[in-house]
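Components:
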Amino acid sequence: MGYLEPMTSSTPAAPEHRAAVRITHWVNTLSFVALVISGVAILMAHPRLYWGDVGNDEMAAAIELPLALNLKHSGWGRSLHFLGAWVTLLNGIVYVGSGLVLGHFRKRLGVTSAGRAVDSSYDLPQKLVYLTVVFVLLPAIILTGLTMSPAVTAAVPTLTALFGGRQSARTLHFFLAVAMVLFLAVHLIQVTRAGFGSQVRAMTLGAKRR
Amino acid sequence: MSTETSRRAFLGIGLSAAGTLLLPGCRSVLPPSYGSLIGLGDTMTFAAHRLLLPRMALAQEFDRSKISAFPAINTTDPKDETYQRHRAANFVDWRLPVDGLVTRPLTLSLEDLKRFPARTQITQHSCERGWSAIGEWTGVTLGRVLEAAGIQAEARYVVFRCYDRLWDSIDLIDAFHPQTLLAYGMNGGEVPVPHGAPIRLRVERQLGYKNLKFLRRITVVDRLDGIEKGKGSLAAEFGYSWYAGI
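Structure:
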């Protein structure tokens, strides 16, 4: 078992990834890209953000985004966004489920009671960021997204109350998406610094460290 | 009597809907987006909503103090000659046909619609673009009108045609939802022309574009594939999801 071998070098080596992690990673990559592109396409139809229940062109915006108004792309944009959202959700359930059942989170992202990392592939800040993305940002972005659904909020009005209104949920959804894109940027920088080729190979083929 | 018939029909449709959504071969209640790749997410959303969400759940209703500014977009005064004639005469000769798979086709005047028990609701209109507005709507529930016409057992969708050339359709679950209105009043007055006079459809659990303005005709059908391009609405022909409960 790769995990149990002592690390012989201090340079970060590409960790071995389980098949479940590798497959869900790349499925998520595709759906993430689809969500960002379609999210911008939808946002272009009304690049103004508000707080509270309502907001429209006849009201003051909390934030006016520097994005050109374009009404032509919200149709396919929304359909692609929901396709991406469904894939992310189902893929996320497989990822989190397998991570919990197979002990991936405990082994890779866990911290011992002494505050030491269980697995030294990732340092403590990295682990905290991953845990935050998986267990805070993703659920929050799904819930704020659902709060924009008139059918869902009719059934679960608590959602609207939780985020302080439909427009608040929309604004939060936007900033959560920005946080996710920033995470992706840092993730790509880290992967590049650790050796892009070997990292991608490890995430694709599960290759052993070299 | 007709009420009983349509209730039974409605109940039967409800039960079969739950069943057929699980059977890929049976497409009677699958949305028109079914079959296209980009529409797959919308189809899944529709299926999930119909299977998981309570069918009669009410959209949030607000206090009068929450009524907000309400932009009027798209067509704000249909060019259609007949519409302009009705508009000039304050809609006294305007009539709304209710036909298709009904036992008693109706032709309703504005006064006829106002004789039905009225419902007033203050709800949020959520435009697909992202903005929203809160308004007060008064009208008759579509369900009451359909019950008066007596929908037949094969009925699956209600199709709406409008003077601004838009047309759309909803399934019977939204058609019989207690907040689905044929609204003749807005914010205490008549529905203003830019907001869809004389009658605007309110489908509170779907996005703004399903809330058609300037209603011209209501037709009950068993399938949508024979109508226009078979996509269930003009919006869908322009790439918007037929189901907008999102």
